[in-house]
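User: Um, any thoughts?
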Amino acid sequence: MITREELYALVWSQPMAKVAEQFGVSGSYMARVCSLLRVPRPERGYWAKLAVGKAPPPRPLPEAQPGDELFWSKDGDLRSAPVVKPAVPRKPWVRGAARRVTGTHGLIRDGKNHFETGRPVDDGDYLKPYKRLLVDVTTSKAGLDKTLAFANDLFSALESAGHRVVFAPAGEQLRRGEVDEHEQPKKRRDYYYSRLWSPQRPTVVYVGTVAIGLAVVEMSEAVLMRYVNGKYIRDADYVPPKASRRYIDHSWTTTKELPCGRLRLIAYSPYWAVSWSAQWQETKKVPLTRELRAIVKALEEAAVELVEKLNEAARQAEIERQERLAAEERRRQEEDRRRVQQSIKDSQAQLVQIIQGWADVMNVERFLQGVQDRAAALPADERNGVLERLKLAREFLGAQDPLDFFLAWKMPLERYHPLSAQAAVADADTKADS
């Protein structure tokens, strides 16, 4: 992994080809990495000019803005530093202070082609592009131009007010909010299965350092459809054939949800810890473009609200973390007491077993000694035979020293060291080291 600062130092210290060689990629790929991390690089001919002392000074590394990728790794996506909680948005937000942004926004550029050349869909249904790293719009082919035009106007209005619109950085793990395309939202929906396309990463606007998710949706309405000759058409477009004795109309009607051409803007919290959303939708008489100024102002106000919610969520998360730590400590203490009691119980049981074993050994030893004493009174031939059998018996029984049994006994502290004892030992080691 390499940071923006480290990459900047590399590309201004040696040619791009050598930098790319260090990472095992091509020079053009490394140039794209520089562009994505907003790292300026030398122009063509820079190193030749440097050799004769005529090179211009290196362009400074611009300060990282909210939403910038801050790291790059060859074996993974570009990643930005994880954000624990956003800072308060910068103030004041003076609308006239920023330059007016016009033209086609970078997230909109080339988007139309990807939407139009996506997966095959039924006539009038929502488009499903193959590429997933695209601006978050949900639209039909008929509504594509209008949807992208509104998204472009919205992004331009936000950036004119000084707020940056980007794809959510991969490293920040921002989520996409729920998107309901129905003009009359459903009360219950199954979001695990949706017929809608969804982007790889949310589209977000950074108001100060606070991210707000944005999704533009062409809404759907219930349309009466008629099934004719293997396909559905709008019932309003159906022209019944002339009545005939030989012809029977086998068509039938049903209701389907189809894109209606009217737009809805959904703004939401992309942070997992906070649930918040707001939406604006146009009617047949009032287009959303008239609401742009009010939308920008509402998003600025929402950013302040989000900061308060995020701070509260962080406070609650810390409380829960402390509670989890306390519960874990209680479990450790309870387990410690259980293991201490078990070590005492096991030690007692082993000692009783050793004592019983010692008694058994002593009984055997008394028996063998009795045999040896009785054999002393036998004739020599019989005595030798008995002693030989006694020797075999001792060898068969093996070592019978009771002391060996006792030395095998483990005291409770040899079985388990209580946490208090471990802490005492650790404290003693620390004092000894000091």
Notes: DSSP finds eleven helices and nine strands in the chain. Residues 78-85, 90-97 have pLDDT under 50 and may be disordered. Strands lie at 2-3, 71-72, 137-138, 164-167, 203-207, 210-228, 231-234, 252-268, 277-281. Residues 241 and 248 are 9 Å apart (CA to CA).
